[in-house]
## 1
Amino acid sequence: MADNTPRIAVIGSVNLDLFTYAETLPRPGETVTGATLTRHPGGKGANQAIAAKRLGAEVAFVGCLGNDAFADEALSLMRTEGVDLSVINTFSDVPTAVALIMVGADGENLITVASGANGAFSDDYVVVPHADAVLCQLEIPVDTVMVVAEQVRGRAASLFALNAAPALPVPDALLAATNLLIVNEHERAAYGSQLDGYRGLLATTYGVEGAVLSKGGVELARARPPKVDVVDTTGAGDAFSAALTVALARGDAPGHALEFAVTAGALACMGAGAQPSMPFCSDIAARMV
């Protein structure tokens, strides 16, 4: 590894996504036939781990799975990409998390998530690998994320990044321990005045309008994504979060880091599914010339 290769630890969710595609979505009590089924590894944590790895980082992932048939499949792409999976917790009595996603011909969808092992990821299973940056999300219990943040805070050289999604109630102490907070515009609105006193780096994304990076209410950078042919927006936020964390961990200036991140998020929209469509550094470099 080159000296400037950042080490990123992603601690969070991993699951298997089961997609059905049909002409119409069922109404309550209705059965729809003729659908097709696809399966993809998913979970915001796993998505971000793959994105960080493809963007040039050395990545370790920490998560929880069940001892069932879905576990290996949920890890398959991370394993193929070379993510360090040496700290994976396996439960004998809790299943691997599964997302059931029904998609209609018009793109509308219905989603049900069985949190399984992600929801059982308690602080007893927290291990924080040595890293330049640690990235979490809120698809595992908030109390567990708080324990991670506290452990990282004891390491002066580590950056703790939190993609506060989905928007959930979080204690002020978690925000105080967060160096980089990443939200979209809807999550920013949901947290409201709680973020008024936040003093770390705050990245807010606005879809096709781009993103803003600020600190203590002062704007540091603003960037717009390149225009792309959108196929599927799933995972765009995960690509952004991973890219911004990687760029800041390797010492990029705020403006360049934000441009790198919005470009990654845009390129992730060009393929179907979250993990398969995560871009590589070469893809981003070609768009930032």
## 2
Amino acid sequence: MWGQAIWPVTLESGDLILRPLKYRDKAEWTAVRSRNAAWLQPWEASNPANQGELPTFGAMVRALNEQARASSALPFVITERVPGKSKPVMVGQLTVSSIVWGSAMMATLGYWVDKDRAGRGIAPTAVAMATDHCFHQLGLHRMEINIRPENGPSLRVVEKLGFRDEGMRPRFLHINGEWADHRSFALTAEEVPEGILHRWLSRS
């Protein structure tokens, strides 16, 4: 796939849809993030170069779109069809980033989900959908997820999906204003030849 367009793409499983993040999502994205501010703050990525200030929504979308055009990221929002709603509701965000082609063929995956919808299988289903797409459509070989050891909900996601625990990375990422340790989890394509989504849905 290197050198070919890998974006935009939309993935669906049941009522869950992963679609590209767009500028017109600003109002809904801002509302969901504001409602979840306290829930997400301990795990919020920060930038030591600008004293931990987060980019504006527009700057974030521009940066992610540039990465997508360069075939180095897949910036999805997680949406869900809800009875009584005319269009799917935004329930989170998932980004496949740091895509490396050539001899590595790997990527890193990060996500967050609305607290009001946590515990309903949305995060593991979304992660499984994105992982299968990266393995089967993009031909990537390895998917990695790095999680703060205190982040119980995210640890349960990788446990449910069977990602391997590859150990601790001291002071790995700048989170919520400081360098933080992370546990690294990974899967390779050979470990889930039938697809991780199929395996997850058959168990849930």
## 3
Amino acid sequence: MTSVLQAHALGRRYGKRWALRECTIDIPAGHVVGLVGPNGAGKTTLLKLAGGQLQPTTGGIIVLGGSPGDTPAQLAKVGFVAQDTPVYAGLTVAEHLRLGARLNPRWDAAMARERIERLGLVPAQRAGKLSGGRRAQLALTLGLAKRPELLILDEPVASLDPLARREFLQGLAQAAVEHKLSVVLSSHLVSDLERVCDHVIVLADSRVQLAGEVDRLLAAHHRLTGPRRDLDRLPAGQHVVSATHTERQSTYVVRTDAPIHDPAWTVTRLSLEDLVLAYMDERTADSRRAVLEVRR
């Protein structure tokens, strides 16, 4: 499988604080990958490392077979839409397209014009007068018309209302299919990722907690509910992600490839949001460490 991004033991530190640590991931080509985690988890740092805007403190990262931002040709392969959907308030929509054509050697003017017309954006209107959703669509158009092989989006819909978010994500999904794009989309809104992403990476505490194909991850995780049971009484093949207990009942989220036959458990499937929250919860890390200590 061809990779668009590979990182090994990647880390970035600001002074004494690690924004990203021990990040090892392999992102396949041709997919829409959701990068999710709480604020401060390291999402933006990882994306800026991938875009060549930051240099690693430790480890290494390869994007599309090269070092991020190393050459003009490498820069041309990657599109980047930042969190504030950057556009110039004083420039018109048409002036943005002309600027994009001057700055990007692979610029697709016909596609940019067609998309602007389809969205109903007025070429003479200044970007500062557009709604948040329209500005986001303009920024996405600029990113797509660059004709990148990899499009990186850093929480582009965080400030949009639900309707504008839906329209933006529908346009992104359509463009990814039409232009055979690889996409990495960061968000803290799991419901948005469920609409468009087939792979997911969960960052928490500046580390990768989970990564893989959404369908496979969901198939491998289960919620077990039953009479209170301690960790050391669970089968060794069940990796415990999280655990909660009441006086009489235990609820575990486990990862296992083996069928669960114990009739004492009620087994239910997880949604993507359930799965992500289990790995993001601060108590999750404590539970996983406890499992390792019990089973050593």
## 4
Amino acid sequence: MSRTADERAAAASGGTVDVNWFYEASVWVTLPLFLIVFVVASCGIVVGLRPVVARLADDRGEWDRALGHVIGTFGVFFGILLALVAVSVYENLAHTRQVAIEEASRVGALYRASSGLPGGDGDRMHEALGDYLRAVIDGDFPAQQRQVLPTASDPQVDEMDALLESVEVGTLGEQAEYKQVLESYDAFIEARRARIDATALALPPMLWAVIWVGAAINAVLIAFIAVRGLRLHLLMAGLLAVFIGLVIFVTADMDHPYAGAISIDAGAFERVLEQVVDESG
């Protein structure tokens, strides 16, 4: 059975073919569902461990002192872990936004610089750049949203390569213009590579495993608190679960820069296409 282009690209990049529903679905569906599951699991742990705590906590004073030290120490380390992970993921998102903006600006600079190419080479370069922007907007970014390395704009890059290799310059002025175009093209290729490489940005699975184990331990420690009223105990566990769940949800949503509710879109390329290419054309 033949495979689609997306499947071949995913296999080449070491990714998976199946799309993660978490990033495809609306945040108004995933967020409530995630929090409900998180809170229900936390409260279920509380209900399940209350009889065990009632049997073990003979000396409430000693139990509370020991548990207080454990919860305090664990809370510090788990809180630091969540904070560092959230900051790291946000920095990846900010970096990806910057490289996308950088590439779009490099395309605009190359478009302006190529106006000095001799003969009709400048017009052909302009046309290729316009096609490139449309391929990035309509092809590359949808693929990156599916966490697949994009290939839609590769033909336009090959076309620009061939065009620049075929340019013939004679006068010193044409040579200077051609050199400037080559420098702009090299900068554009580097920015493009950075934008594509950001598709694979994600936290290591081992780190996610540590986060989930930490969340489970936190729920267990909350369940170990000897609270007389079940409703109060569930309220405490539920509120803490909501906050931790929100932090984990936002971190997971930002983990893949081009996918999810908090993601990088093709807005910078659309602006260059509208303000530079279409206006000039």
